Amino acid sequence: MIDEYLKESKNRRDVFKAIGATALTGALLAEAGFDPAMAQDLKPSGKPLKAAFSNAGLKATWCAQGKQAAEAWGKLMNVEVTWFDGEFSSTKQRASIENMATQQWDFVAIQTFGIGTLVQPVQKMIDNGIPVIAMDTLIAPLGTIPIHTFIAPDNEMMGSAVTSQVMAAIQGEGNIVHTQGSLGHSGAQGRAKGFGSVVADYPDVKVINEEPADWDVTKVARIWDSILTKHDNIKAAFFHNDDMALAAANVMKAKNRTDIIIAGVDAMPPAVNAVLNGHMLATVRNPSSRIHGWAVAAGVAAAQGGEKAGKEVPEFILADGPVITRETAPGNLWLQKNFLI
């Protein structure tokens, strides 16, 4: 049903106008993989719900798209979304979440910049009866605090899948670079583990640098300026997100080192287009729209439907996404445009 409306519509706003909010909500939920019964039963609230969201930093394209997705799903489900930017700083995000914890919300969804940095204010909200949903990365080690649910991709799979593409492209030999995100981020930890598990099978591959860049494109530029100065022979590089990959690509271009194969994670539109035009080998979709949109749906189910953590809703919900190649790129761009993946 939803495909027909989307094909007839010029943009997302047209989709929202063409079909009633209740019907579209159900269609989106069903399309996104939720139980059909839930898609039938979960309806927008009679009065607006209030939700607070925070992710690592809106300067990242993945986080910015997540905000847009949460707000779009919020409009469909009659949820007023208030945003608290993490600003790529554990200290700044902690201050924002402490502010969040002084207010009353129907539910909260958080992607933390670092594991364990937000435990006290999050626990305060949980103690006040507010369902707290973790997005993409753990708020704290499993079992530490009773969050409502954890919605995330398989980061280890994403790291290994893209690294396998890189190994095939370089025929299993040569110098490579592994540019990591924030080391305190469980997603970065999973991607690093996936990378390492694949590289371990290639004795002729040498990892010459694994500096973390903390998702910061300015820091990536400094790191890669140094790497390219020190090393003449680099075959490929794997980045924990595409923003960093594309920032490094600009440094490579400036130094006339465009022969280096690059690959990343997130599959944001600039990177998907880079795969299409051959500037990137591959990326894998960390489904920002699913993660943030499903957080809205799970929050409504908790606040309005009374779903209890560990009972009606599971502790973990996998939000999966495919490896993006030239063949799969156009379809993925369409799904992103409509906040479906």
Account of the protein in words:
The protein is elongated. The two termini are 17 Å apart. It contains 14 helices and 12 strands. By secondary structure, it is of the alpha/beta class. The strands form 3 sheets. A 6-stranded parallel sheet has the order 2-1-3-4-5-11, with helices on both faces. Strands 7-6-8-9 form a 4-stranded parallel sheet. Strands 10-12 form a two-stranded antiparallel sheet. Mean pLDDT is 89; it is low at 1-23 and 31-40. 46% of the residues lie in helices and 14% in strands.
Q: Per the principal axes of the C-alpha atoms, what is the gross shape?
A: elongated
Low-confidence stretches are 1-23, 31-40
Q: Give the biggest beta sheet.
A: 6 strands, parallel
Average of the residue pLDDT scores? 89
Provide the gyration radius in Å. Answer: 20 Å
| Quaternary organisation of the protein chains | single chain
Helix coverage percent of residues? Answer: 40-55%
Q: What amount of the residues lies in strands?
A: 5-15%
Quick tags:
12 strands; six-stranded parallel sheet; about 15% strand; elongated; alpha/beta; disordered N terminus; about 350 residues
Summarize the topology.
Layout: H1 2-8, H2 12-18, H3 21-32, H4 36-41, E1 49-54, H5 61-76, E2 79-83, H6 90-100, E3 107-110, H7 119-127, E4 132-135, E5 149-152, H8 155-169, E6 174-179, H9 186-199, E7 205-209, H10 217-230, E8 236-239, H11 242-254, E9 261-263, H12 269-276, E10 283-284, H13 288-303, E11 316-318, E12 323-324, H14 329-337
Parallel strand pairs: 1-2, 1-3, 3-4, 4-5, 5-11, 6-7, 6-8, 8-9
Antiparallel strand pairs: 10-12
Helix pairs in contact: 5-13, 8-9, 10-11, 12-14
